[in-house]
Amino acid sequence: MADGWEADGAGVVRLPSGRLIRGRGLRRPLAGGAVPSFGLYLLGKPPPAVEWASRWLRWPDFRLPADRVDAADAFRELLERSGSERVEVACAGGQGRTGTALACVAILDGVPATDAVAWIRDHYSQHAVETPWQRRYVTRFSP
User: Fold this and answer.
1) What are all long-range contacts of 110-113, with beta carbons under 8 Å and residues at least 24 apart?
2) DSSP per residue over 79-137, as a string?
3) Which of 11, 86, 91, 95 is placed for a possible disulfide with 42 were both Cys, Cβ 3.0 to 4.6 Å?
4) d(CA 47, CA 40)
5) Which run of H or E residues covers position 22?
6) Are the C-beta atoms of 95 and 12 separated by less than 8 Å?
7) What is the mean pLDDT of the chain?
């Protein structure tokens, strides 16, 4: 996709369909280059304002999304937008909540739920999906 992320960019995950989504930690400075056209932010409180379209999903650190129906809807929106936009998903550190969300998006894109944690650790970060309850959430996630 001409307007998407560079496939080898920091935090960029290529889903089985070929779509690209960037995961990142908000505590780190925004890398130079292209900015997202849409961001999904996973935090316990509203995120700082950004110049692009965004969505906040209330999700306290080391926990699970406050509203699982809203979370599933947000993951579907992220996947849908990734077909034509530069999208990112981010939490404070870019590992637990971000990895969990990316694993759920991977499930929506065809990765079996039983394989999604290992898949995202191979394709994004070995530290993704930090807690036992986040792992359980991913394995029980159904589109």
Assistant:
1) 110/16, 110/17, 111/16, 113/138, 113/139, 113/140, 113/141, 113/142
2) HHHTTTS-EEEEESSSSHHHHHHHHHHHHHTT--GGGHHHHHHHHT-TT-S-SHHHHHH
3) 91
4) 10
5) strand 20-25
6) no
7) 94
